[in-house]
Amino acid sequence: MDLSFLFDLTYLVSATLFVVGLKRLQSPATARQGNALAALAMLVAIVATLVENDVLSWTGILIGMTVGSLIGALAARMVKMTDMPQMVGIFNAFGGGASALVAGAEFVRIQQMGAPMATSTGLSIGLGSLIGAVTFTGSFVAFGKLQGLISGNPITFPLQKTFNALLFLAALALGAGLSGAFALGGLTPLTVFMVFIGISLLLGALLVIPIGGADMPVVISLLNSYSGLAAAAAGFVVGNMVLIISGALVGAAGLILTIAMCKAMNRSLANVAFGTFGGESATAQVASGDKPVRSIDAEQAAMVLAYAQSVVVVPGYGLAVAQAQHELRKVMEILEERGVDVKYAIHPVAGRMPGHMNVLLAEADVPYDKLFDLDEINDDFQRTDVVLVVGANDVVNPESRSPQSVIAGMPILDVDRAKNCIIMKRSLSPGFAGIDNPLFYLDGTMMFFGDAKVSMSDLAREVREA
Amino acid sequence: MGEMVVGLYVFVLAALAGSEVISKVPPTLHTPLMSGANAISGIAVIGALVISAQANTPIVQILGVVAIAMAMVNVVGGFMVTDRMLQMFKKK
To answer: What is the largest CA-CA distance in chain B?
Structure first.
């Protein structure tokens, strides 16, 4: 039996472990084990690769592995949970960048050997470097927008879409030339390749700048998918099945999350990508005017909550901005001790990335079996005594049911069907969509104005005394 | 069948199997799923290692080492931060 067969079997073990690991992510109870299995899969693949290939020089390999591991470990320990979207954004960039470099290095290696390049190899190299480079710069722009280094507003210029389309066509043409589809005049293949990479890098940045900060959850999900596709292309370049399989898994994961995010906002992917919607500072005029709202203080809010039988909390990103998760959990624990039935309703876009709010609440020690997503909880609202909305707006706006609204059709949490609704918010200002929220003016609605953290501590004190 | 076509078969089937498995991940775990996917996309390190092992010139070697470092940031950072998040998920 020859050795390469053994290695192929080892890679199969690795690929299987990746899939089993992902399957364990289907429940919070087994998820940690699943993550460990995937890490084991990675270790098996790395060791097998190092043993299979006759390594000419270990120095570079060891330096690369050590430096990368140290940076990764440090980042994983230091990152704040509110900053997870940025971290995932940067990691997408590294994943895409690494795959592009693999494709590029293989291109240079083949050129220097002077060997003719097979069309299939050329194609994989072209795809790997194109997708990898687009992911690399696109992710950095997304990171910049999330971190506030670049304006969250859509950045546009005349003929932007035409220019991007031309760039894309130019990249395709150069890629086809490199794959041997036609002669490239007097230019050396290396020069053409550099231009090709340059165009791909530019394209990545230009594709993301017109997308608003509020749409970044969709963008990082999509770039996540791209980083997987780039890895799969790198797998075709070096002819390794475990790379192709893992790349496909990541590609699928990213795509599923992208679709979930689009559905949660009732937008098509094309609309997110080209709609220049979702700026950070919506400036639309709101005709809230002089409609009366009922404003209450902490003591009144505590009374309403303490004498309810069932309470559902709807946390929005304003809660995380105010860092009031812990205070919220304390209030709810006091209520539970009084015998109140407490649940948390999480809208898919409550945080800054898919599932972000759940992580922020888990960090504040909220048990995960108290968290319910939109489909699970929406029927419960009509039987709920009090809903407490903290720092959320568009996701509870009943306007979405009116066909004329800009958010028409967006799935919302039906909090207006509950008997009472307490809304904790700084002011009556609109959310990302820039429209007024009729919920604020309903009979059962009480506005509790103030900073979420201060209000929540006041509430904790009052509920304890109630 | 050529190697490329076999690769395409594997890619398509893996993507379909992956979709089946991943679409059942509950929304509450979507952030760890994404950071875990980050870690898995660090699989590019395998490609970088193959390239580095066969590097015939300094340029290829440098490209390979940078690729290894970038991919390892994802691998180590991704799995560690995912574990950090998942250990916070507790049942009452």
So the answer is: 58
Count CA atoms closer than 13 A to A178's CA, side-chain side: 30
The phi, psi pair for A388, rounded to 5°, reads -110, 110
A64 contacts B68? CB cut-off 8 A: yes
Number of domains in chain B: 1
Q: What is the pLDDT of residues B37-84, one digit of tens each?
A: 999 999 999 999 999 998 888 999 999 999 999 999 999 999 999 999
Residues of A in contact with B49 (CB under 8 A): 46, 49-50, 53, 61
Asked whether residue A96 falls in the same domain as residue A146, the answer is yes
| Whether residues A372 and A270 fall in one domain | no
Q: Please give the structure tokens belonging to residue A124.
A: 């994989």
Q: Per the structure block, which two tokens stand in for A306?
A: 């303490």
- Nearest 5°: the CA angle A285, A151, A398 is 40
Q: 């759940």: which residue's tokens?
A: A358
Q: Please list, in sequence order, all residues whose beta carbon lies within 8 angstroms of the beta carbon of residue A357, skipping any fewer than 6 positions away.
A: A315, A316, A317, A320, A346, A347, A350, A351
CA distance A226 to A255: 9
Q: Is the pLDDT of residue A284 over 70?
A: no
Nearest residue on chain A to B85, judged by CA atoms? A359
Tens of pLDDT, residues A66-95:
999 999 999 999 999 999 999 999 999 999
Number of other CB atoms surrounding residue A202 within 10 Å: 17
Structural domain for A305, as ranges: 298-465
CB contact under 8 A, B63 and A29: no
Q: How far apart are CA A161 and CA A202, in angstroms?
A: 14
Question: Do residues A443 and A340 both lie within one domain?
Answer: yes
| CA A371 vs CA A30, A217, A376, A378, B49: distances in Å | 17, 20, 10, 13, 42
Contact A253 B54 (CB under 8 A): no
- A232 belongs to a structural domain: yes
